[in-house]
Amino acid sequence: MRRRIRLIAIAIVALAVSAAGAHVAQTPDAADIAEGMNLYLHKGDCQSCHGWAADGRKMDSQMPDGSNLRETRLDRARIAMTIKCGRPGTGMPAFDKFAYSDGRCYGMKAADLKTPMPDPPATLQQREIDLLMGFLMEKVVGKGPMTHAKCIEYWGSDVDVCKEFK
Q1: How many domains does the chain have?
Q2: For 90-99, b where at least 16 C-beta lie within 10 A, e where not — what string?
Q3: What whole-number distance in Å separates Cα of residue 91 and Cα of residue 157?
Q4: Mean pLDDT of the residues in the chain
Q5: How open is the CA angle 92-97-98, to the nearest 5 degrees?
Q6: Cα–Cα distance between 53 and 68 in angstroms, integer?
Q7: Measured distance CA(59)–CA(52) in Å, rounded
Q8: 54-78 per-position pLDDT tens digit
Q9: For residue 131, what are the domain limits?
């Protein structure tokens, strides 16, 4: 009986350790983070609406107001869905080329939309969305307001734009 209890206890500990290990986040590769940042700043041109620091301070006054991604309450899955599918009725475009062609986004097709979705600067492949998400989760989401130290970390050096932060 004791042996059986001991084996059960060992099995429980082994399961707990493996479950804990499964939840430990791997450190993202620096090259992937840099590529995600490049997608944010250039191909997706997310900074035009969300600002270079993703704090909602947009770069282009002609663009819609983007939300503050540094303080968003959305989790990774919901942010990824928003990038893929946009937000109907807002200025957020769908970066998935086929977003409203087959019902993959919110179960809707283009004909179901009350107003057409704005065109994104470019469409993104799933790999690019994953890289963009890696960057956002590592450097932006939940990181709070931009500070001088965060700005230097964000850019990798003390660039001119960081001087506005104390």
Answers
A1: 1
A2: eebbbbbeeb
A3: 32
A4: 86
A5: 105
A6: 9
A7: 7
A8: 999 887 777 778 899 999 999 999 9
A9: 2-164
